Hints:
Blueprint lengths: L4 H53 L2 H47 L12 H12 L1
Helix pairs in contact: 1-2
Amino acid sequence: MRFNFGEILMTQVIHSIEYCLGCISNTASYLRLWALSLAHAQLSDVLWTMLVRVGLRVDTTYGVLLLLPVIALFAVLTIFILLIMEGLSAFLHAIRLHWVEFQNKFYVGAGTKFVPFSFRLLSSKFSDDVA
């Protein structure tokens, strides 16, 4: 087999470009996850501002009566919106990122056909090596 410098150079340039684009893509994906956590914090602040501050600003006569349902509503919204929906969204996004980036590091796609593991094929391989 003859050594072809141009082919090797072109292959390395393509792999280098793919690696750089993968790094940029992975960084952008994790920045999206960071933005999701910032949105989660902002949503928590909005819930606090719109619900509990309203209950705290009312007179002392009606404030106590209004504060109990407001705190109950705040607790329900916090649990359902922030903890369940936002947590599930962030969890699924993080799982997707780990799966995509894990596959990036190990999968090459060089065209080798996948053959599942089989003891029968393994024993025939060893018998061919011995003979």
